[in-house]
Amino acid sequence: MRFDRAAGERQNADVQVEEVGDVPYVTVEFFALSSRLEFALLASGYAGGDIGENAWVLWDSVAQDLHKSFLAEVAADAGAAILFREPARTLIKTADGGCEFRDAAIPETAVEVLLQVRTIRNNLFHGSKVYFTDRDRDLVSAGIRVIRHMLDAIERSEKTRRIQAAWGYAHVGHQ
After folding, report:
1. According to the 3-state scheme, what is the secondary structure of the chain?
2. pLDDT digits (tens, 9 = 90+) for 3-16
3. What is the pLDDT of residues 15-32, one digit of tens each?
4. Average pLDDT in the 161-168 region?
5. pTM, whole model, 2 decimals?
6. What confidence tier does 44 reach under pLDDT thresholds 50, 70, 90?
């Protein structure tokens, strides 16, 4: 595995962002990885949507093409265990026009694990910004672990080699 050993040390660190304040480093890492991953997936042909309209990732197709070891590796990773114990909740609209979080089912398939990463991303960007709890940190960290396992899995399947190629030119940040 190519997990960054220093990432564990940075997990509890913060990044100072002007006009925002302290932002947990783990959220910055997750943002960069998930953004780069989604670009690579879209650029490598896993794009849904109508021509001329918004595109989205075809998570079912990605999961189907991943190496079969992916799900077992994620399930065995202690850093991703929260996804199989207390998965990320989904933010839903309520009858009164507000929003609330609804519990999610424990993922049992590769696509459900990938959808957990999407839910974590959505919750990070669309959920409460008032505080970042230990559970939030654990979920974001688990999302990072899933992405890293996915990057390893795409190298082991001929069907997903195009994702690896797109990942190579999908850099986030200044060049």
Report:
1. CCCCHHHHHHCCCEEEECCCEEEEHHHHHHHHHHHHHHHHHHHCCCEECCCCCCCEECHHHHHHHCCCHHHHHHHHCHHHCHHHHCCCCEEEECCCCCEEEECCCCCCCHHHHHHHHHHHHHHHHHCCCCCCCHHHHHHHHHHHHHHHHHHHHHCCCHHHHHHHHHHHCCCCCCC
2. 454 555 566 677 77
3. 777 776 677 889 889 999
4. 89
5. 0.86
6. very high
Return d(Cα 44, Cα 65) in angstroms, integer. Answer: 12
User: CA angle, 147 as apex, 111 and 143 as ends, to 5°?
Assistant: 85
First to last CA, the chain: 26
Rounded distance, CA 28 to CA 141, Å? 11
pLDDT at position 11 is 62
Structure tokens at 15: 């990044």
